[in-house]
Write a structure and sequence with these properties.
This protein is of the alpha+beta class. It is built from two helices and six strands, in the order E-E-E-E-E-E-H-H. The radius of gyration is 16 Å and the shape is elongated. The structure holds zinc ion. Zinc ion binds next to loops.
């Protein structure tokens, strides 16, 4: 856990308990596997519950206060981009016969990951 951990702002605060504005759970877009994760409400470091082919990037992240801005992410398009990136990573990680093919698949995976990451701007 250090300053390099990405900061993540919840896009959804689940039903606030009476007298507890921060809610009971927060939903976030994971900056590692690009799936939605749910954590107990509260700022601070969390260990992500990553799954899928992109999960190997996992370290940890820091939850920051929800700021009440509406969620504008096109989740359907983002999920499609995520599935594409997952397929690209699986293809990249298979043994390749030629270095040229390995290089091409690595580049395609990198581009696909960048495309899905672009859906989720990080708080500064
Ligand atoms: Zn994750």
């Amino acid at each position: 856990m250090n300053d390099d951990c990405p900061k993540v702002r919840p896009f959804k605060v689940n039903p606030p308990r009476r007298g507890r504005d921060e809610g009971t759970t927060w939903e976030i877009d994971c900056p590692f596997c690009f799936r939605v994760h749910t954590h107990g409400a509260g700022i601070g470091a969390r260990v992500p519950h990553c799954s899928g082919p992109l999960a190997s990037f996992t370290t940890s992240y820091v939850l920051v206060e929800p700021d009440g801005t509406p969620d504008t992410v096109d989740r359907k398009a983002a999920a499609k981009a995520r599935r594409r990136a997952e397929r690209a990573v699986v293809a990249r990680d298979r043994p390749q016969r030629s270095p040229a093919m390995a290089e091409r698949l690595a580049r395609e995976a990198e581009e696909a990951i960048a495309a899905v990451a672009a859906f989720f701007p990080r708080p500064s």
